[in-house]
Design goal:
By secondary structure, this protein is α+β, with helices and mostly antiparallel strands. The chain is built from twelve helices and 18 strands. The longest helix is centred in the C-terminal third of the chain and has 18 residues.
């Protein structure tokens, strides 16, 4: 069985690592000559819209998936007309556009912050009368890790924020005074079976995820499962999906979803019976889905911009280092580490030790 992947970054790399024990081969399409998954399968080097490469990928892959949501939707549509593509192009198209995404949430009964589409400074000024302060201005497309976003605190912020977006279509959203940020990851296979992972509680800084901690038996689990199952059913979704949520006054409000394996689920590699990466492959190949129960207490810490000294990290008990083979660069995710513990107190200690190392190399 050969799986094609659009993109050959760290997520594709981790999918391939999960696929090796299952006897799955991989072929990647990526425009970067030094993409970090290159050593884990065949690399088709070129643009995502290259017709000859797309034709080759469609011919040689039994099923195609993608590792990030900024692949052009028309590329997924083309491939879907020639081979199996999971998740379906519709999920990609919705996730790529924040306005479509918010509207889709609204249509299927998942609450979101108040929002409005804006395409000019004048329309932004008008929208603020109903959105209120503070708010966040976001580009409709191509935003990730805090990119393409500006916090609006007063009318003085509107013009510079709009100019920073260079006039691209945008969405303005009410700022949510959340108690915590959480995400839920689920997998749905071709046959329609769904499994859910425990909620992850997430800590962001500068718009980039820093720490995710598994929250087994969380009181918000049932509500989160109802939202993500509703989303998957509405999209006829196949694969792993992540839904990011804000908790406010004991209720969950949707922020965004990612139609792929997700950074907040990296703890599942060592911290769950079946990792999100293996379950993604099981889902798109229509295999039975694996158990998602946590193995003890688990968490993940990202390394942004720089790498810790390996010996120092591995000296931390129960720590597992995952290097991405990426050149360190400001604001770039270059590695993560997971930890498992027997109790919450022990886990907190281990997270703090890893976070200290992360802060020492963080140049974002």
């Amino acid at each position: 069985m050969r799986v094609g992947i659009l993109g050959a970054g760290q997520l594709a790399r981790m999918i391939a690592l999960a696929g090796y024990p299952l006897g799955v081969d991989f072929i990647f399409l990526d425009p970067s000559a030094d993409a970090c998954a290159n050593n884990f399968g065949e690399h088709l080097y070129g643009d995502y819209s290259d017709p000859s490469l797309l034709a080759e990928l469609a011919e040689r892959a039994d099923v195609v998936t993608y590792e990030f949501e900024n692949v052009p939707a028309e590329v997924a549509d083309f491939l879907a007309s020639h081979t199996q593509v999971h998740p379906a192009p519709k999920a990609l198209a919705v996730a790529q556009d924040r306005l479509l995404e918010k509207t889709f949430f609204h249509d299927i009964g998942i609450p979101t912050p108040a929002y409005a589409a804006v395409d000019s400074l004048e329309s932004l000024e008008q929208a603020m009368s109903t959105i209120g302060w503070p708010a966040i201005l976001k580009s409709r497309t191509l935003g990730y890790d805090g990119k393409g976003q500006s916090l609006l605190k007063s009318a003085d912020d509107l013009k510079p924020a709009w100019e920073q977006l260079a006039g691209v279509p945008a969405v303005v959203e009410a700022f949510v005074p959340f108690e915590r940020e959480v995400s839920i990851i689920a997998a749905r296979n071709v046959s329609g079976a769904i499994v859910f992972y425990p909620l992850s509680e997430n800590l962001h800084r500068g718009g980039i995820l820093r720490i995710s901690e598994c929250c087994d038996n969380d009181p918000m689990q049932e509500q989160a499962e109802s939202y993500i199952s509703r989303l998957m059913e509405a999209l006829d979704y196949v694969g792993v999906l992540a839904l990011e949520l804000f908790q406010v006054d004991g209720k969950l409000i949707a922020n965004e979803f990612a139609p792929r394996v997700h950074n907040s689920g990296h703890w599942t590699i060592e911290g769950a019976e079946t990792s999100q990466f293996e379950n993604h492959l099981r889902a798109i190949l229509d295999l039975p889905l694996g158990a998602t129960a946590p193995v003890g207490k688990a968490a993940m810490v990202n390394f942004i911009g720089g790498l810790p000294v390996t010996e120092k990290l591995l000296a931390i008990p129960r720590a597992h280092l995952h290097l991405y083979d990426k050149t360190p660069r400001k604001g770039r995710k270059v590695a993560h580490a997971t930890v498992r513990a027997e109790n919450a107190e022990q886990l907190a200690t281990l997270i703090n030790q890893l976070a200290t190392l992360a802060d020492q190399v963080d140049d974002s």
